[in-house]
Amino acid sequence: KIASCKMQIANCNLYCFNFSDVAKSYNIFFFAYVKLFEEERKILLNCFFVIRIDGCDFKKFIKLHNYEKPNDIRGLQLMNACAINVLNKFNEIDLSFGHSDEYSFLFRKNTKLWNRRQDKILTNVVSYFTSSFLFKWKTFFPDQELLYPPNFDARLIIYPSEKEVIDYFSWRQADCHINTQYNECFWNLVLKKNYTHEEAYKFLLTTQTKEKNELLFTEFNINYNNIPIIFRRGTIIIRNKMYKKNKSHNMDNNKQTNAITDAITDHTTQLTTII
């Protein structure tokens, strides 16, 4: 009788356990309808796409972290190191371009990364870039404590053909030139002529490219063409294998080859000649 009771108890426990599992499964199934609200956007097939990362409220960040004006080579080198990290992580990126607090990454048109799920790709790239920035901060700013973590936003743009890709990167490189020329004038007026920010802004408001170059040369003895080219044209990072395939562009020896990353960092070339 004792043995029979033990068997009945064991069977009862087993039955209850199974019922509990069924109940849990039912609950999961019952609430699973909420997944229907999730939107899974996929990038169009056979199209190039670019992810552009941009610093959020970076004016405040660079001020509190004592960046040099008008350009801080440490900040640019840090951004370049983060971009190389991203290229190492995502093999589907062949080319990237960056200046100031932004970086653009070009993905191959035939990439199948995460089944081309837009949100998955976008969030992984920007989060990896941001974590690399935090991880490498002390390498480039050893004497400056990181007061708070920076954040970057990102957008993904789809381009149907090479023409749009070329025009996109040409636009970003032109933006680099315009910003650098303006910042050189602005900060020299502020730091050397004691202009207020508002006075410098109003002074430059109606000036054109030629007038800005003349201002730099006559007032501050600065030849714009002698400003380090990394400031004027930004940085191109391209995979070594891709670079070797393209023999048509004209590049000099002002490049850095990294055997570990298998990438070439270049500041001398216009992007249209590479693409």
Automatic annotation (TrEMBL):
Family matches, as InterPro entries: Thg1_C_dom, tRNAHis_GuaTrfase_cat, tRNAHis_GuaTrfase_Thg1, tRNAHis_GuaTrfase_Thg1_sf
Stretches assigned to the tRNAHis guanylyltransferase catalytic domain: 32-160
Family matches, as Pfam families: Thg1, Thg1C
TM helices/strands, residue ranges: none
Cofactor(s) of this protein: Mg(2+)
A GO biological process held by the record: tRNA modification
Residues reported in the UniProt entry to bind Mg(2+) 2: D54, D101
Binding annotation for Mg(2+) 1: D54, G55, D101
Positions that bind GTP: S100, D101
GO-annotated molecular function: GTP binding; magnesium ion binding; tRNA guanylyltransferase activity
Catalytic activity annotation: a 5'-end ribonucleotide-tRNA(His) + GTP + ATP + H2O = a 5'-end phospho-guanosine-ribonucleotide-tRNA(His) + AMP + 2 diphosphate + H(+)
Every Thg1 C-terminal domain range: 164-259
Enzyme Commission number(s): 2.7.7.79
Protein purpose: Adds a GMP to the 5'-end of tRNA(His) after transcription and RNase P cleavage. This step is essential for proper recognition of the tRNA and for the fidelity of protein synthesis. Also functions as a guanyl-nucleotide exchange factor/GEF for the MFN1 and MFN2 mitofusins thereby regulating mitochondrial fusion. By regulating both mitochondrial dynamics and bioenergetic function, it contributes to cell survival following oxidative stress.
Family: Belongs to the tRNA(His) guanylyltransferase family.
Record's subunit section: Homotetramer. Interacts with MFN1 and MFN2; functions as a guanyl-nucleotide exchange factor/GEF for MFN2 and also probably MFN1.
Protein name: tRNA(His) guanylyltransferase
Organism: Piliocolobus tephrosceles (Ugandan red Colobus)
